[in-house]
Structure to design on (523 residues):
């Protein structure tokens, strides 16, 4: 799991996932 | 020579269609890429920061309560918010605290047509994704798969018309044979093109965007010469600046918000060819071409939808 | 031959700097007050997991409290490895009534497993790492995953994992 600093009360977490033969960095922004 | 051009163009189009049918949406995806997703409990104004900070104009929504994909956030949503606020100036508090999950209510409150959100499986032919996009009048289509263990939806990516045309321009040498003038292809929208003047209030221009179901409004002078355009995505800058309080601004003043890295409005004439158009799409991020005459007067507009529709269904 | 007979061009009056100069020259009242949007594409700075400078046992305590508050459960840690927590967490979503049966009637596993581990980066600088560790169904039978090897696993949804870790990080941020 990768995280970025909480800014504007918004949390941002990410995970690099393989989708078949490609790589998606899924980034989710959620409110704190 | 004309006959030769016709035949070459027809053969090239057929070859490009075969290419689109032989590839899947998955093939368009880079080997490694980012996908930014917003939780529907995020506030609208925070989501605006996220879009601008990441230099994107749209993002898929994730409803963590149902663990499902909840559609796409697009500039239409921000336009709905502006129109709702313009009709209900007393509701500032509600607008200011609005969450992404509340956008559907805003859509209903102003009677806006919900965006038909077609989606497609990444393994389907690219040709099919293009047709779905054209039929749903949206300029982008989410690629949805299922987690093979939990069967929960995965938003794999969102394909846009621009990305598909760029994929064609990069991979189909046949685009070099599209030499017929675009004025002959019935690909330019010339009738009822909604336009405005630099002094038109920006709120009226926003109404034109929604009434016409278009994503840009050309700005012309008294002789009909094209000076600039107002795009749906300019609304993000309007809200960011908080000047949606002051919607009496003229569209010229509202355009002062545009950031300096705006690349400018692309124009062409009826004599231009799709070969050069596709070459420019390959090199630059272009979303439409305004067609002008030799004096710079506005003749019409050719959007990426028009180009894609011609490639898929024209000839 | 493409370029020579092309009449494609960029409309000069649409370039932001020229537009602004024209607006000011024509004396539009608000023109001088409105500044361009600075699209600061502040590069998002990413970190593995979350960092902490607290005392290691305090960090572990806070994580257990947060997990408890969020209704998660965990295996009793072994004496030799106090810094790893094996978590199991019901991912209960308000899906349709038959929440645990997908369209094809298969049972949808709803217990997510996660490994949370504390690492020391340097003196007084620690990192809490979160790893997805598969699904279990709450009826005790081993998850289907056992017969899908990592390599074959090709469509995995990261959202439940991202969602639960976000909740845990929020709980830790709010508590601390």
């Amino acid at each position: 799991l990768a995280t970025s600093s909480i800014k504007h009360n918004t949390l941002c977490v990410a995970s690099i996932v393989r989708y078949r033969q490609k790589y998606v960095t899924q980034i989710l922004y959620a409110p704190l | 020579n004309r006959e030769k051009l016709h035949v070459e163009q027809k053969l090239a189009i057929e070859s490009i269609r075969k290419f689109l049918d032989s590839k899947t949406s998955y093939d368009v995806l880079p080997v490694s890429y980012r996908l930014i997703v917003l939780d529907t409990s995020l506030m609208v104004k925070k989501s605006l920061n996220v879009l601008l900070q990441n230099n994107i104009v749209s993002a898929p929504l994730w409803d963590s309560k149902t663990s499902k994909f909840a559609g796409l956030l697009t500039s239409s949503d921000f336009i709905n918010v502006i129109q709702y606020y313009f009709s209900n100036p007393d509701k500032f508090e509600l607008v200011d605290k609005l969450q992404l999950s509340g956008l559907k209510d805003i859509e209903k409150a102003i009677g806006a047509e919900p965006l038909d959100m077609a989606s497609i499986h990444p393994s389907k032919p690219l040709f099919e994704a293009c047709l779905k996009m054209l039929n749903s009048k949206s300029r982008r289509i989410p690629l949805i798969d299922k987690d093979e263990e939990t069967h929960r939806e995965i938003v794999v990516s969102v394909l846009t018309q621009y990305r598909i045309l760029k994929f064609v321009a990069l991979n189909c040498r046949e685009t070099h044979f599209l030499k017929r003038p675009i004025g002959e292809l019935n690909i330019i929208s010339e009738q009822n093109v909604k336009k405005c003047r630099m002094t038109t209030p920006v709120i009226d221009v926003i109404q034109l965007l929604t009434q016409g179901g278009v994503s840009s409004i050309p700005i012309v002078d008294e002789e009909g010469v094209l000076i600039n355009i107002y795009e749906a995505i300019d609304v993000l800058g309007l809200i960011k600046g908080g000047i949606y309080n002051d919607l009496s601004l003229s569209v010229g003043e509202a355009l002062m918000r545009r950031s300096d890295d705006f690349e400018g409005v692309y124009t062409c004439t009826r004599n231009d060819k799709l070969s050069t158009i596709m070459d420019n799409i390959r090199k630059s991020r272009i979303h439409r071409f305004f067609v002008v005459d030799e004096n710079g007067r506005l003749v019409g507009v050719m959007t990426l939808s028009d180009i894609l529709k011609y490639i898929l269904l024209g000839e | 031959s493409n370029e020579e007979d092309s009449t494609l061009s960029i409309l000069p009056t649409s370039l932001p700097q020229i537009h602004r100069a024209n607006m000011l020259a024509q004396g539009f009242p608000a023109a001088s007050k409105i500044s361009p949007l600075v699209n600061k594409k502040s590069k998002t700075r990413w970190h593995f997991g979350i960092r902490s400078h607290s005392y290691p046992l305090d960090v572990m305590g806070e994580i257990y409290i947060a997990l408890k508050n969020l209704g998660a459960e965990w295996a009793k840690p072994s004496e030799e490895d106090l810094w790893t927590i094996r978590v199991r967490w019901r991912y209960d979503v308000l899906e349709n009534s038959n929440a645990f049966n997908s369209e094809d009637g298969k049972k949808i596993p709803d217990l997510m497993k996660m490994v949370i581990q504390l690492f020391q980066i340097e003196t007084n600088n620690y990192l809490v790492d979160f790893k997805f560790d598969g699904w279990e169904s709450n009826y005790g039978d081993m998850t289907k995953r056992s017969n899908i090897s990592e390599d074959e696993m090709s469509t995995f949804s990261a959202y439940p994992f991202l969602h639960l870790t976000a909740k845990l990080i929020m709980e830790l941020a709010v508590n601390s």
Summary: Chain A touches chain C through 19 residues (CB under 8 Å). Chain A is about 0% helix and 80% strand.
